[in-house]
Each structure stands twice: as structure tokens, then as C-alpha cells.
Design a protein that fits this description.
Structural class: alpha/beta
Domain Methyltransferase: 46-137
Protein name: Methyltransferase domain-containing protein
Largest sheet: 7 strands, mixed
Order of helices and strands: HHEHEHEEHEHEE
Strand content: 15-25%
Organism: Mycolicibacterium aromaticivorans JS19b1 = JCM 16368
Helix content: 10-25%
Shape: globular
Number of helices: 6
């Protein structure tokens, strides 16, 4: 099975490809995204594209942003909605939808955050995804993407994210948005062994909680008043 054929709902039910919870589910926002939230870099309304169990959305809501999390997995959406109720965060709502065909919120969002969704999309769906996000974003909206860099996973791994280099990321996103920066940044994941490659040791450091720090990129872009609609 390839990443493009991943059973995402199975992954969130914890009976899919992974042994236990999905490794990207670290129980909190990725540190670089948490830093953006603390700095007030994400402005209401926020679209959390591929929100998973909603930790980024919930952190944004706790910081007084109105946020809509969009996720393909029903299981993940149900989890996020329960968490919002438990935390008393009525300004975080969640929608089960395919982000590549997402519609109904044209020009609404002042910020869009993609925390590790981009590399999970089939490469041939990237353009449709970017069109959907561009349509949903307001003029002047900030767009942040956190994505695995090329080389994050071994080439021989059968099912792995569709990693990117900086040029590839710039070329894809730059068709629709004005790129501000692309910079290296780590992505944390709870990984002890790679599926199908139990003897491969990844050459990355772990943080203080034992989470592997994979190489990634943080992109920041803005929607201009011109460009492809």
C-alpha cells in the first residue's frame, strides 16, 4: 500500500497501517505551529486544512481565534468535536470533507494552516487542493504549510509521505500564492520503527520526550488580489 492509498479513517481508529496511534498524532500542535499561535501570526477566521484530531484547531480556539478544521476522516472529526466540547471551545468547529474539493466558504479565511497535510496528498491532487484553499482564503490571507522535506524517509520505504524539496514546494504553491519564505524546520513524530523496515535506524535526533525530529519545511505565503481564482 502507498501513502496515496492510505486508509486514513483506519489510521485514526488505530486499526490501520500503523501499530497504535498515527505517529504524527503527538497530542499537541507541532512546536513551530504552536510558536505561530503564541505569536498571533494566525488571524481569525482560520482554516485548519487536514486538521486530524484537531489539536491545532483547539489551540487556536484557546487563543481566541474562530477556526474551522476540515478533515477527511470521520473518526478524527468526531474526536475533535468531542475535545472541543470537553474544553468548552465553541469557536472551534469541524467539517468532514475532502479538502481537494472543499467549497462553500469562498473568501472567508484570514489565515490557513496546513500542519503536515500537503505531503499526505497524492501528487496529482495537489493542484486541486491549492485551488480549494485559494478559493476559501480572503485577499491578504496568510498561508502556512508544514511539510516533510525530501530525504525524511528512506527511498526504499513502500508507503511514505510525498516529501518535497524547497523548489518543488515553491513551484506548486507559487502558482496561487505569493511566497514569503520557505525555511527548514523539524517535524516531530512518535516513531520507534518504520513500517516494513524494522531494522532501519533513522539518523535524526529525538526531543526531550523521545519524539523523532524529521526534517521538514515551513512555508509562509499570502493570497494577493490577483492570480488564479
Amino acid at each position: 500500500m502507498t501513502i496515496d492509498a492510505m486508509d486514513w479513517d483506519g489510521a485514526y481508529r488505530e486499526d490501520g497501517f500503523f501499530d497504535g496511534p498515527p505517529p504524527w498524532n503527538i497530542g499537541e500542535p507541532q512546536p513551530v505551529i504552536a510558536d505561530l499561535i503564541r505569536a498571533g501570526a494566525l488571524r481569525s477566521d482560520v482554516l485548519d486544512a487536514g486538521c486530524g484530531r484537531g489539536e491545532v484547531s483547539l489551540a487556536l480556539a484557546a487563543a481566541n481565534c474562530t477556526v474551522l478544521g476540515v478533515e477527511l476522516s470521520d473518526t478524527a472529526v468526531a474526536w475533535a468535536r468531542r475535545s472541543a466540547v470537553q474544553r468548552g471551545l465553541s469557536n472551534a468547529t469541524f467539517e468532514q470533507a475532502d479538502i481537494t474539493t472543499f467549497a462553500g466558504h469562498d473568501g472567508r479565511f484570514s489565515s490557513v494552516v496546513d500542519c503536515t497535510l500537503f505531503h499526505a496528498l497524492p501528487i496529482d491532487k495537489r493542484d486541486a487542493y491549492l485551488k480549494s484553499v485559494h478559493r476559501a482564503a480572503a485577499v491578504g490571507a496568510d498561508y502556512y504549510i508544514l511539510v516533510f522535506a525530501k530525504g525524511a524517509y528512506p527511498a526504499e520505504m513502500v508507503s511514505k509521505p510525498n516529501e518535497v524539496d524547497a523548489y518543488e514546494l515553491h513551484a506548486a504553491v507559487g502558482r496561487y500564492f505569493d511566497i514569503d519564505f520557505i525555511r527548514p524546520t523539524p517535524i516531530l513524530a512518535k516513531v520507534d520503527a518504520l513500517p516494513g523496515l524494522p531494522d532501519v535506524v533513522l539518523p535524526f535526533e529525538r526531543d526531550s520526550l523521545g519524539r523523532l525530529q524529521f526534517p521538514g519545511y515551513l512555508l509562509h505565503a499570502r493570497k494577493s488580489g490577483s492570480g488564479i481564482a
